Amino acid sequence: MRPILIAGNWKMHKTQAQAREFLREFGTALQSSSQDSVPLTRTVSERQVILCVPYTDLAVVVEQTQGSGIAVGAQNLHWEDQGAFTGEISGPMLVELGVRYVIVGHSERRQYFGESDETVNQRLAAAQRHGLIPILCVGESKHQRDQGLTESWILEQLDRGLAGIDLEHLVIAYEPIWAIGTGETCAAQEANRVIGLIRQHVGQAHLSILYGGSVKASNIDEIMAQPQIDGVLVGGASLEPKEFARIANYQA
Ligand code: PEP
């Protein structure tokens, strides 16, 4: 059985006060949107909920989710443990805060901050060196899809990003760039096909592979009904507690 992961990516949203408010409402919404009215801890222990929040929210979210079963993730990390890298955050800093997951290679990092497969690879190695589980994001642009380059592009990203990386302690998220924040979801069957291809290429039967790109309460059930899809990475819809709770409590 591959673990089911429901991860939210808050991107650059929410102050500490807003994070506290979210968590209060999310706890209640998780229980009321659960079909079985199971307590928070049970709901999330069967499906690992992860909140990937801005650095400034990490300590608050770790503290406020203690004992709830919710795991906390960061949205990036530097490959060195310390040094003259102004504005960067390292693995040991995240570990000390109680962070367990970290997103690496999100398309926004690649597009706006010049991340390459080489630096993605270094960040993945740094995360694993410190016992963090990296969530590696891969995905094609609209142009690449239109040119029929989806498969070759993703396999290239995987080969370069994963060189020398431990495939046991890793999560991959397939996030077609054209579906991120656009409201345009990749058809569930198509996401399933690409994720199957990723699984076959990586050759790791137990690897959890997520789908990301305009996931909402209205499409989660169909997405999670796909046999290759082990969870979701959710941007916009993870900012709203009721919406994200409904996603976490998708109906299998
Ligand atoms: C993301 O940020 O990884 C993402 C998938 O965003 P959205 O759900 O808003 O498309």
From TrEMBL:
<feature type="binding site">
    <location>
        <begin position="235"/>
        <end position="236"/>
    </location>
    <ligand>
        <name>substrate</name>
    </ligand>
</feature>
<dbReference type="InterPro" id="IPR035990">
    <property type="entry name" value="TIM_sf"/>
</dbReference>
<keyword id="KW-0963">Cytoplasm</keyword>
<comment type="function">
    <text>Involved in the gluconeogenesis. Catalyzes stereospecifically the conversion of dihydroxyacetone phosphate (DHAP) to D-glyceraldehyde-3-phosphate (G3P).</text>
</comment>
<feature type="binding site">
    <location>
        <position position="181"/>
    </location>
    <ligand>
        <name>substrate</name>
    </ligand>
</feature>
<keyword id="KW-0324">Glycolysis</keyword>
<keyword id="KW-0413">Isomerase</keyword>
<feature type="binding site">
    <location>
        <begin position="9"/>
        <end position="11"/>
    </location>
    <ligand>
        <name>substrate</name>
    </ligand>
</feature>
<comment type="pathway">
    <text>Carbohydrate biosynthesis; gluconeogenesis.</text>
</comment>
<feature type="active site" description="Electrophile">
    <location>
        <position position="106"/>
    </location>
</feature>
<dbReference type="InterPro" id="IPR000652">
    <property type="entry name" value="Triosephosphate_isomerase"/>
</dbReference>
<dbReference type="InterPro" id="IPR020861">
    <property type="entry name" value="Triosephosphate_isomerase_AS"/>
</dbReference>
<comment type="subunit">
    <text>Homodimer.</text>
</comment>
<dbReference type="GO" id="GO:0004807">
    <property type="term" value="F:triose-phosphate isomerase activity"/>
</dbReference>
<keyword id="KW-0312">Gluconeogenesis</keyword>
<comment type="similarity">
    <text>Belongs to the triosephosphate isomerase family.</text>
</comment>
<protein>
    <recommendedName>
        <fullName>Triosephosphate isomerase</fullName>
        <ecNumber>5.3.1.1</ecNumber>
    </recommendedName>
</protein>
<dbReference type="Pfam" id="PF00121">
    <property type="entry name" value="TIM"/>
</dbReference>
<comment type="pathway">
    <text>Carbohydrate degradation; glycolysis; D-glyceraldehyde 3-phosphate from glycerone phosphate: step 1/1.</text>
</comment>
<dbReference type="InterPro" id="IPR013785">
    <property type="entry name" value="Aldolase_TIM"/>
</dbReference>
<dbReference type="InterPro" id="IPR022896">
    <property type="entry name" value="TrioseP_Isoase_bac/euk"/>
</dbReference>
<feature type="binding site">
    <location>
        <position position="214"/>
    </location>
    <ligand>
        <name>substrate</name>
    </ligand>
</feature>
<feature type="active site" description="Proton acceptor">
    <location>
        <position position="175"/>
    </location>
</feature>
